[in-house]
Fold this sequence. Notes:
Blueprint: H1 15-18, E1 21-25, E2 28-33, H2 41-52, E3 58-63, E4 74-81, H3 89-103, E5 107-111, H4 119-122, E6 143-145, E7 148-152, H5 167-179, E8 186-192, H6 199-207, E9 210-217, H7 221-236, E10 240-246, E11 251-252, E12 259-260, H8 267-275, E13 279-282, H9 287-294, H10 299-302, H11 307-328
Parallel strand pairs: 2-3, 4-8, 4-9, 5-7, 5-8, 9-10, 10-13
Antiparallel strand pairs: 1-2, 6-7, 11-12
Helix pairs in contact: 3-11, 5-6, 7-8
Amino acid sequence: MRIEAFPDPCLGTPWGExxxxxxxxxxxxxxxxxxxxxxxxxxxxxxxxxxLGVDAVTLDLKFSPPSGRGISQVRHIIAVxxxxxxxxxxxxxxxxxxxxxAEGAKVGLLDADIYGPSQxxxxxxxxxxxxESKDGxxxxxxxxxxxxxxxxxxxxxxxxxxxxxxxxxxxGALQQLLTQTAWHDLDYLIVDMPPGxxxxxxxxxxxxxxxxxxxxxxxxxxxxxDARKGIEMFRxxxxxxxxxxxxxxxxxxxxxxxxxxxxxxxxxxxxxxxxGVPLLAELPLAMExxxxxxxxxxxxxxxxxxxIAAVYRRAARHMAARLWAVSQGTGGxxxxxxxxxxx
Length: 343
């Protein structure tokens, strides 16, 4: 078997077709992928050894981001969206950003929820801390937290200040936050979108070169109905939907260990299958996810080796892999379901 024929574990497409750069000498293999996969190196090595029919392979996984159509200093912009509030979108966005960083990418996070910015609190940025400017106010330096570059309206106003603005003003504020932030050499900029399919969503899709979108939902029927609308909205404006993440999939009783599906079962898988996109993750309804985000240390930062952090990191890998496939014109196996097993 030739290494070029090895099906990428995230996409199912051979590395050769994806354009992976491969160097091999004996049982030592160096592979440069278009997505970060630092946390999966051992798993990939075992899978490659099995594919080649050898006892073991020493694998060195490298990451080289594909060329993108982003903005200055940003290669790829990824929107994390939900057409319904209360499904854990912001928590998902910050953990995906941290997960991509843990996997080996340079990442920024833009809080595009002008009316209800929350990323400042989730990242543990102290109230009153303001971004610096090195050019007299023409641009602002992103605030660094947990290894990522971040910008949010919450950095510019107090927590008690309501943004009583009409749609066009909000859209203008979003563009300013995006373009007047001095991002530095980012592979990915994760944009935490406000819920809905209104002005900000249209502004982002029509005036910003968004590379792809991730839809966050819960298994609840009403949330799935809105999630489908979100998927169709991005498709109408020619933005690739990179996958679906289902939050609050199960609840495990801390006393008896009984697992319950409080909000329904299999909804994320169903909508992903119907819409022909990957199911990136099924995350539990777990108190620690909420507590860690509220405390300014989201799960991937607070418990980087834990089971839930592993799910976020796996979802981030698959999301970035899907973006690589889209940029290469291969698309990968769009309709597959990704089984969540421990790394």
